[in-house]
UniProtKB/TrEMBL annotation:
This is Dihydroxyacetone kinase family protein. It comes from the Bacteria. SMART domains: Dak2. GO terms for molecular function: kinase activity. The keyword Transferase applies. Keywords: ATP-binding, Kinase, Nucleotide-binding, Transferase. Residues 7-329 form the DhaK domain. The keyword rRNA processing does not apply. It holds the Pfam family Dak2. InterPro entries: DhaK_dom (IPR004006), DhaL_dom (IPR004007), DhaL_dom_sf (IPR036117), Dihydroxyacetone_Kinase (IPR050861). Residues 361-560 form the DhaL domain. It comes from Pseudomonas benzopyrenica.
């Protein structure tokens, strides 16, 4: 196991020391694992809201300490309830005459240790109330409601209670609204894999590639059911089925939605989950007033997510929207009633000849030859790029060829319109670097030939040279750096030289093709200075550059067309 830790036994203390080192609004008790808001009000201190539990759920719970949310967070060892003494120390440090509310997730250890600490604090004259959060809807058919686990929805209770306390409400009021919200809150999670507890050193369970765990808790345990992977949308649908049924949320219910990552789920995947959840909730007639997406309460490095739903009214929305300085709270969560989709700006209309020009048939023939060459060389170019790049060149140029094939016949009516249409098609079809490079070169060449129906060899050479120069300017490369420019630049120079020497188009092009071949072959011994191949250094030697070889491929395809 490789983890960026020093020792499993020291990880929690060092975690807390790291947090207070980063935030001037936090303090750490010297003798206990307790994070406190800093500074605490000296007089007329509002109700303290305290939560906590085992570590490994970051950013919970310390991430929610700050004005407007938690006053203190108590940390136990990884996935282990904090001690009674630590909870009691937090109450003593955080609570003033207004007392303290303990927000406790419904696990036996947390319930016992927080509960006993509350009793001891009351015996010292400190007013204390406790709210148990048991939002895990996955256990609806497994245990009684009062025995359900508290999971990610607890963060919403932190926010509601913290905002109410900051507004100056009494302990009884803060506890009442937190309990009411907890009773209506529902959450459920799904895991795509297990997490690794530092002290154990290996994953807690094993899943096949096509399996998931449904209805897991937040301590690395297995779920209530193992089943096949369904894909993002279907997974969200199943989670929502459970939450809505168990919560009894009728059509028209106003909801807050929390999309929570379990620790190893990237923002990309969470955004897909949020998209599906918002869409499906609206399709079911539910009104999503607020949505938050991110990692709020994790299970170390577990891949997966949970969804939480909380019915809201104007009073709850006001508390959820209230400002807070807690680092991990992402903001108001306001969402549009529907995604905003704007039409793309319309480009200036291109002038396309209405009737075929004198070279229309030859231009179409040339395009067909290029298309056939790119398709025929896909495997070869993919192999070259895989050995000294990211392996997508063959596929990218195949997409480009298909885009060229789809162009209308009118695109080939004149040289400038043909080059411009090719540039636009390749720009749209090819991702990565090849699309922009070819598009830029073709657009520049089209500008050179604008209005010219039957270019001379010198004009073709000027257009070719201009395109190559545009490509070099865009990419910043120079000949000798192992790029497509090592085939293009010598070909362009040879074509220009042939035009100036009075050579025929076929002779000049043959010379240009030979120069391109020589340039592409020479890249095999060049040390790469551009692109992903530059990361390989000496390991790229002996392999010709795929982009330069691709240039030779389509130039070879053009030779018989030009020779006729």
């Amino acid at each position: 196991m490789k983890k960026l830790i020093n020792s499993p036994t020291a990880v929690v203390r060092e975690l807390l020391e790291g947090l207070v080192s980063l935030d001037p609004g936090l303090a750490l008790l010297a003798e206990e694992q307790v994070i406190l808001r800093q500074p605490l009000a000296a007089a007329e201190r509002p109700v303290a809201v305290i939560s906590g539990g085992g570590s490994g759920h970051e950013p919970a719970h310390a991430g929610y300490v700050g004005d407007g949310m938690l006053t203190a967070a108590v940390a136990g060892d990884v996935f282990t309830s904090p001690s009674v003494d630590a909870v009691l120390a937090a109450i003593r440090a955080a609570a003033g005459p207004a007392g303290a509310l303990l927000v406790v997730k419904n696990y036996t250890g947390d319930r016992l240790n927080f509960g006993l600490a509350a009793e001891l604090a009351r015996s010292e004259g400190i007013p204390v109330e406790t709210v148990l959060v048991a939002d895990d809807a996955a256990l609806r058919h497994t245990v009684a409601p009062e025995r359900r686990r508290g999971i990610a929805g607890t963060v919403l209770i932190h926010k509601l209670a913290g905002a109410a306390a900051a507004a100056g409400r009494s302990l009884a009021e803060v506890a009442s609204l937190a309990r009411a919200a907890s009773a209506e809150l529902r959450s459920m999670g799904v895991a795509l894999g297990a997490c690794t507890v530092p002290a154990v050193g290996h994953p807690g369970f094993q899943l096949a590639e096509d399996e998931v765990e449904w209805g897991l808790g937040i301590h690395g345990e297995q779920g209530v059911e193992r089943g096949p992977w369904l894909g993002a949308d279907a997974t969200v649908a199943r989670l929502l089925d459970t939450l809505i049924e168990d919560g009894g949320y009728a059509r028209g219910t106003r909801l807050a939605l929390l999309v929570n990552g379990l620790g190893a789920t990237p923002p990309l995947e969470l955004a897909l989950v949020a998209r599906a959840a918002l869409s499906q909730l609206r399709q079911r007639g539910l009104v999503v007033e607020r949505t938050w997406t991110g990692t709020f309460l994790s299970a170390l490095d577990m891949p997966g997510c949970s969804l939480s739903l909380l019915p809201v009214d104007e009073a709850r929305l006001a508390l959820l929207d209230a400002p807070t300085l807690a680092r991990a709270w992402p903001g108001t969560g306001q969402v549009p009633a529907a995604p905003t989709l704007l039409p793309a700006p319309v480009a200036v209309a291109e002038t396309t000849p209405r009737t075929p020009g004198p070279l229309a048939e030859r231009l179409q023939e040339a395009a067909d030859a290029i298309i056939a060459s790119l398709l025929a060389n896909e495997a070869r170019l993919t192999d070259l790029d895989s050995r000294a790049g990211d392996g997508d060149l063959g596929t990218s140029l195949t997409r480009g060829a298909e885009a060229l094939r789809a162009l209308p016949a009118s695109a080939w009516y004149a040289p400038a319109s043909a080059l411009a249409a090719m540039g636009q098609a390749l720009r749209r079809a090819i991702g990565g670097s090849s699309g922009p490079f070819y598009a830029c070169a073709l657009v520049r060449a089209a500008q050179v030939l604008d209005g010219v129906e039957r270019p001379t060899l010198a004009q073709w050479a000027e257009a070719f040279d201009g395109g190559v120069q545009a490509l070099a300017e865009l990419g910043g490369a120079q000949p000798g750096q192992r790029t497509m420019l090592d085939a293009l630049r010598p070909a362009a120079d040879a074509l220009s030289d042939g035009a100036r020497a009075g050579a025929s188009p076929a002779q000049a092009f043959a010379t240009a093709l030979a120069a391109a071949r020589e340039g592409a072959a020479a890249t095999a011994e060049m040390l790469p200075a551009q692109g992903r191949a530059s990361y390989l250094g000496e390991r790229a030697r002996g392999i010709p550059d795929g982009g330069a070889v691709a240039v030779v491929c389509w130039l070879e395809a053009l030779e018989p067309v030009i020779a006729r």
